[in-house]
Known about the structure:
Elements: E1 2-7, H1 15-23, E2 28-31, E3 40-44, E4 47-51, E5 64-67, E6 72-73, H2 75-87, E7 93-97, E8 101-102, H3 105-118, H4 130-138, H5 151-173, H6 180-194, E9 198-199, H7 201-210, E10 215-222, H8 242-250, E11 258-264, E12 267-269, E13 278-279, H9 281-288, E14 306-308, E15 310-311, H10 312-322, E16 326-330, E17 340-349, E18 352-354, H11 360-363, E19 367-374, H12 391-404, E20 408-412, E21 420-422
Parallel strand pairs: 1-10, 1-11, 2-5, 2-10, 5-7, 6-8, 7-9, 11-16, 15-17, 16-20
Antiparallel strand pairs: 3-4, 12-14, 13-14, 17-18, 17-19, 20-21
Helix pairs in contact: 3-4, 5-6
Amino acid sequence: MIRxxxxxxxxxxxxxxxxxxxxxxxxxxxxxxGGSNAGHTIxxxxxxxxxxxxxxxVFYKHTVNIIGNGVALNIPYLIKExxxxxxxxxxxxxxxxxxxxxxxxxxxxxxxxxxxxxAERQFGSTKSGIAPFYSDKYAKTGIQVCDLFYPDRLxxxxxxxxxxxxxxxxxxxxxxxxxxxxxxxxxxxYREMIQPYVCxxxxxxxxxxxxxxxxxxxxxxxxxxxxxxxxxxFSTSSSTLAGxxxxxxxxxxxxxxxxxxxxxxxxSAVGAGPFVSEIFGDEAENLRRRGGDAGEYGxxxxxxxRMGWFDVVxxxxxxxxxxxxxxxxxxxxxxxxxxxxxxxxxxEIDGQVTQSFPVNAVLERAKPVLEYLPGWKEDIRGITDxxxxxxxxxxxxxxxxxxxxxxxxxxxxxxKRHEVIRR
Length: 423
Ligand code: GDP
Ligand code: MG
């Protein structure tokens, strides 16, 4: 069985927890895109973890965790995360594709310099170097993990890369220049760090598939941050879609059996960009402090997330572009304080009502058309049986299921591993 777990919204839907849950029954968990720019929060018997670079299967002894070729690999960050786990007595099984590209120290610098240059026009980047990394990858000036093992070729590559980067550093950003020799030495240090994990993960997966292993593909961020189908350019720089998992991990497209699409019971977003159902002030703060495990604050940056009501238009579209087979509806417990729950059911754009998710130029003018569902005014944590949920709560789930047109097979009602209802 091969399953993908991906987000339908703007990210932070609770994919980490769902992945952790499914990892228990998986042989292999693979990260296929993104880097240390987004975080998954996992709470289990070892404690609370915000994983950025590692796949969410690292807590299980029987699970092999693969960093796929589509990932932006920040090597010192990865090693730091591995060490944090070791301190808690967890020894994760990790493999890194030799084709994965290395996030370079200068990618982080360029990310920062560019946001500084843009000033108030900035995108709200996490400054993890992701946009410069993927720009270089597709401009064919990236460094693959395998390059670290061929020093002469690497030296020459670095010399050529620095030639171009230094022009920008000098004339556009007015910042210190790069030294190819120093970079080379730094990369040799990286090589030491990751050597034990590097292999041909493609061959490994071919074999695993022939043995019918259970494989989990773990997405980062959500459909609305996809560079093609999301709110470009307020998107991320690698595809967040299940379809890309085939490329970023090395799995044939027809092999993915299930696309479990994680949808949050309300909306949250980080960074700039259109967000139609957004709420502000006290209304937002009341929801923010009840969301997540300790409020809706970024796992990477700690900054307060933007908040909004459930958006049917965006979430349905998100499920469609993911090719959802199942929906996991998360953080339902956070809504227990509301008398009535607003839901954005359509967009009004220049006097016209639509249910189709438009391009940004139009989306920016969209106003939410709200409907109000009755709240349940109850704490639903601890309930494990769907039928035991308060009637209004069940109706909220059924309403969303109908609106999305995809079966909601998982509902989560708390941040911990077993706070989940399977239907
Ligand atoms: P991801 O990026 O999609 O993995 O999501 P994050 O981990 O960044 O954000 C989701 C937040 O919600 C985290 O703080 C989780 O601990 C928390 N969480 C996940 N599921 C639930 C749930 O059912 N209820 C509550 N209250 N929090 C949840
Ligand atoms: Mg997150």
